[in-house]
Amino acid sequence: MNEGRISIEQLSHMREREDHVEFKRAMKNYPFAGGEKNDPRERRHCVLGYIVALANEKGGRLVLGMEDKLPHKVSGTDFAIGKVGALTDEIYKRLHIRVDIYELYDENNLRVLVIEVPSRPIGKALRFEGVPLMRTGGSLREMGDSEYFSIISESDPDFSARICGGMTLEDIDEAALNQMRHLMQLKGAAMFSSPTHQLLRNLGLLVDGGLTYAALILLGKSEVIRRYLPQDNVVIEYRTDHSMTRYSARAEFRGPLFTVIEDVWNYINQPAINPLQYVENLPQIIDVPSFSRSTIREAVINAIVHRSLQMNGDILIRLYPDLITVSNPGGFPYGVNIDNILTVNSSPRSRLVAEVIQKAGLIERSGQGVDIMFSNCIMEGKRLPDYSKSDDYQVCLTIYSQVMHPYLLLLLRKYQSSHPSQDWLNVFDLISMYCVAERDSSRIYSDSIDKLLRIGLIKEHPVFRYVIGDEYYGFFPEVKDGVVSVQEASVLYNASVDDEGVSMSEYVKAFEGLKTVKQTRTFIQKCCEKGILVSHGKGRATRYVLAKRRQF
User: Fold this and answer.
1) What CATH code is carried by the domain that includes residue 132?
2) What is the pTM of this model?
3) What angle do CA 299, 304, 309 make, to 5 degrees?
């Protein structure tokens, strides 16, 4: 096998959407170009159709001879046996892209055919029988108007890099310029003290004597932004209840990004809007703001650099006591979706704006904001950021305020604070911890699981596969008070997950090897007396539930 080519073992664990791969059983007579079918929707389910769809998704693999369900088992395929070279030539002849095709064989000599598909050209969507295709689950569909427009718009130059005709140096806001210089100085950028003309030229904000739209967005005076780019506006609406149709308070911010970002935060960070929450770790009390500065800043900056400036509509922030939503015009950049937002590298629509604020240190690197928001929310014991309300026309991010997992917060803070930064948990480790705690396997990262098992933050479990390690339960008040041990708490809480209640026999089974039947009965009775468990029913029908539902 050539260097860089994939193996059957690697393929068997891949996920179609996340790893940009399409598996087809294709044992006999799989169609190359539509076969004998007449319905266009059925004809597209062929080798050429899937190659077109994968290329439109910026590349991937079409694998023939493996089942599409995880783990992908080898079925074997007879497609193009002895004709791999001719197949490569025919695909190029029809689609004008060069694919890499190779064969793999398993221990039973079953054949797998792998077609490595490159990305489509920038600004061009590939078509099968005149139709640009995209994958949806295991099917193929015609690309929507917004998706097609997103592709053909790629070849357009960055809007923020265009010259803003009529704007002059007198239109630069001095406070914003000074703030940019200050941030660059803190970052150690030597150019911070350059004369204004030179500084703007070095940053690409002044080109051939003309100021760009990026200069307007970052440094322009409010009235100048209103004149040349009125859609560059941030609106905040506050409501005390989700049922309210009218807002309780409203504010608009139209000004240079280098000052607006702080103005927006100062508005949100009012005691009535952003109250502190308290997590007890006696004798210490930890203050957790409902909304953290870092998370909100990243959310707003992401909205600004990724919004479509060619679509009307403000960046809209809706504030409620329990959550905040930040939405911007324009859907996700091409190739980005809810499932891959943490793993795919995307290019912001306002690339020049993103480059300048990165050089100024307002962001560490382009694309890192999502990582920071997810990490912050987990470290604060809150729910994950939610992009589920996004569509083709807007990206909508929801950030929740309530501390839902106080003991996970304490465990993670203890770990991070007791280890050097190079050993800290990364965003994928944190998400995996969160998902194990939530008993949700949909976003667990296998590489992180190995690490978390090794350092003892999680452990294997016969029912849930993985659970949080015993150290987690040491933060529970009943453990600190000596009512139950860490090990007892671990077994008890992992057994008490049924909202309808748990029987005594189920507890006996859970404590098997740790307690005798009699000891288990005595322990469960003690938990009821101490208010940890509540019982209902009589005799063998008695069920036990947690008095206070723990957030795992």
Assistant:
1) 3.30.950
2) 0.71
3) 150
